[in-house]
Amino acid sequence: MNTVLPLVERAVPPLELPESAREGLTSTPFGLYVHVPFCATRCGYCDFNTYTSDELGPGANRAEYAGTAIDELRRAAALLGPDLPTVSTVFVGGGTPTLLPAADLTAVLAEVRRLFPVAADVEVTTEANPETVDLGYLSALREGGFTRVSLGMQSAAEHVLAVLDRRHTPGRAVQAAHDARAAGFEHVNLDLIYGTPGESDADWAASLDAVLASPVDHVSAYALIVEEGTRLARRISRGELPMPDDDVLADRYEQADSTLRRAGFDWYEVSNWVTSDAARCRHNELYWANANWWGVGPGAHSHVGGLRWWNVKHPAAYADRLARGESPHADAELLDDDDRALETVMLGLRLREGLPLELLSELGRRRAADAVTRGLLDEAAHVAGRAVLTDPGRLLADALVRDLTD
After folding, report:
1. What is the spatial distance between Cα 74 and Cα 16, in angstroms, rounded to a whole number?
2. Assigned domain for 285 exists
3. Where is the Radical SAM core domain (predicted)?
4. What's the structural domain count of the chain?
């Protein structure tokens, strides 16, 4: 007779911050990320750590989540103290954070302010699905201290939204951007996805036109990535939809860049454009600079001084750990100097400012010189000692990063 043994969690050492990670703790930019894992429905292309209500068990419901996240914030302050870093950015992502009541999100922010020193000009962002917010909700967030909102638009074409399994209707994202401005948000972002099967040149142009008709100062545009295990991947494998074409993706990117530039936007990271430096997402810049952040929530990742750790993924397991007074982390690793240098190059090259050539290995510097001759890195910047992507180089940024770091 076969016996089914109960699942036992692997023992994980307690989370401790080594002295090497504490060096520069109060002088390095520090941010907080709060992951809200709930979605009304699962989008067909998404492989993020998110769950619908049907997928969750006891202890992982939305009504209790703010309190659970606050429990982890208190653990964070206790572990990082007594000399706490100043919080320069807070980013609430998901999932769909705006499925929680505005009062829950502002309560989490209030606890951040109670526990940590917070910069006077702190940037506080929430992601939002357009169908989950209105003027009243956004006004409550603004009054509670949120300064920035990022709306998931993806497309202005109804049939493209249907392929992506997005619930909002065309036009709703633009209206939500107007509501955000009316609520007092100075910085408003719209997220786009290009290359969805069935999307035409005209569809993409219409999406860009819709963005430019809205009161935003930041635009993010990402190529559709078909992630293994998603509904979209299964539909493509069955032949119901074609795989995104690399040439089409490149054309879409160039179309976005030229359209946005004509309208007064400029790129500051390969997939992000702004109307001014003040509109740049400082929280994402903190990631790209390989600075410090604590990720709150199931599956959230953290990095402090070369120590990286990540939480258990399921909301029920996450909540159970905290209810027992235990750390919710699943595992951790201490990066060595070579690892950190490699990540600095991988992240920094995607930025408009590029990075100092001295951060590259000898082989990397030779390859950077070759990339200049191929028109992928800027010649004048190279002479001045920096590796900076040209417009053609941005199309091949991922391949170039691999080439310079191998």
Report:
1. 15
2. yes
3. 24-266
4. 2
